[in-house]
Design brief:
The protein contains six helices and eight strands. It is α/β, with parallel strands linked by helices. Strand 5, helix 4 and strand 6 form a beta-alpha-beta unit. Strands 1-2-4-3-5-6-7-8 form an eight-stranded mixed β-sheet, with helices on both faces. It is 38% helix and 22% strand.
Amino acid sequence: MLTEQLVRVAGPEGNLTIPDGARGIVLFAHGSGSSRHSPRNRFVASELQRDGLATLLIDLLTLDEEEVDWRARRLRFDIGLLAGRLVTVTDWLVQETETRDLKIGCFGASTGAAAALVAAAERHDCVGALVSRGGRPDLAAAALPYVKAPTLLIVGGEDGLVIGMNQEALALLSVEKKLVVVPGASHLFEEPGALEKVAHLASDWFHPYLR
């Protein structure tokens, strides 16, 4: 039986789950207007946990910042701020007793993927692999050449504009990389079977690097 525990890292709260025998942990960075309670990310996290990976779903904004953001809708696009929070969480994972022996991967959605790419570039010695779902890597363009973690970009086949952004980002990445377009899926991967496909792709990508 898995136990999910609430953690707090420099303000924001997160949900940490560590299966028995886990060798790696995936840090989730949610997209604009979302939170650690995102049903899509929680579904992917549950599938990764079933495959033996620990997960940490964490808010990148404090409660006060979230209230400000709901009115101004500005902080959710502050990639520097969000990436800085992910760097802090990464450092926490490296130091925390329960997680310091686990190899770290990042899973980012939408603007969270941009923040994850920037953080991975800054902590290239810590982040072992990265997966982006419907990501906005264009918002992290300056950091892409410095990313060292093998990177999988997953985009919905019906998300035309974002497909183009990810194709351009793929060309800027100089690491092991792959772009997968999921046929029939929209930006949020709400179609039957779409999230299951994302979870399967993510698990297959993370395991060689985190185990």
